[in-house]
Amino acid sequence: MRYDPWNILRRLTDSYIRAYCVFEADLSQPRPALPPNPDLVVRLFRGDEQLQSATEALIPAGLTAEDVSARMHKGDLVAVGFVNGTPAAYTWTRFGSTLAKEIELVIRPRNHEAIQYDSLVLKPFRRHRLQFAVAAPVLDYLQQAGCTSTLSWVNLLNRPSYKNQCKWGKKRIMTVISLRLPGMKHRWNTALGARMASLFTKPGLGRLVESDTGQVLRGVAEGPARRTGNLQRPRSKPVPNSAGMQLADFIAPKPCRACWPF
């Protein structure tokens, strides 16, 4: 068994303190080239008409039919990587505000910005750079759909995932320190690198928002537009499902093949 001190430290401290890094990816920037993987096929699923196919692909990967249905009904996009026909990895994308349940805050994207969340490579397939290969067709699709950037968050002590974000050329724009001590009803959060309010709001302050599992959270404050330096970053608008093109019309880049069924 491979000794991982970072994972041990995360397990020991996770109940009390967490540190999550928020990364921003500029889709106009070139991405690292990937070695060919002829055994990998990546499929993108989005929309109610593809719900059944997505569910069949993701249940073997550990997700429930209820989770998949709730996310797909909100217009989320999921990419699933198959190695020799077996589900090996997946990653989800949302086109609006979503709950970052690890820190109990709602993250708010700006216009033309998507949120990447819940990415997983199954254990038998790790250390083969599948995370990059599965995400590449998603980023290319988002770029053609009019998105200019994406947001994602990673546990600082999850060193493989953290390093992957850096290798991909993403910019770390904030680190959230989240604390919950015995007796505390809610988590206490603070941010390093940027103002907390520039990205996050607390559930329970205004309108209705849904979590990634479809749970309705009462209220999210509209809050000020996000700022980077002196630039205001306006709130996001949903990306249409068609995004000016059909999923099946999208050509996946090499090195992996990709399929988008109707």
How are the elements arranged and paired?
Blueprint: H1 5-13, E1 17-26, E2 40-45, H2 51-58, H3 65-73, E3 77-83, E4 86-94, E5 98-100, E6 105-107, E7 113-121, H4 130-144, E8 149-155, H5 159-167, E9 171-179, E10 188-192, E11 200-201, E12 203-210, E13 216-220, E14 226-228, E15 231-233, E16 257-259
Parallel strand pairs: 2-16, 7-8
Antiparallel strand pairs: 1-8, 1-9, 2-3, 3-4, 4-7, 5-6, 6-11, 9-10, 12-13, 14-15
In words, what does this structure look like?
By secondary structure, the chain is of the alpha+beta class. The chain contains 5 helices and 16 strands. The protein has helices at about 5-15, 50-60, 65-75, 130-145, 160-165, and strands spanning about 15-25, 40-45, 75-85, 85-95, 100, 105, 115-120, 150-155, 170-180, 190, 200, 205-210, 215-220, 225-230, 230-235, 255-260. Strands 10-9-1-8-7-4-3-2-16 form a 9-stranded mixed β-sheet, with helices on both faces. Strands 5-6-11 form a 3-stranded antiparallel β-sheet, with no helix packed on it. A two-stranded antiparallel ribbon has the order 12-13. Strand 14 (about 225-230) and strand 15 form a beta hairpin. The longest helix is centred in the middle third of the chain and has 15 residues, at about 130-145. It is globular, with a radius of gyration of 18 Å. About 35% of the residues are buried. Mean pLDDT is about 80; it is low at about 205-210, about 215-240, about 240-245 and about 250-260.
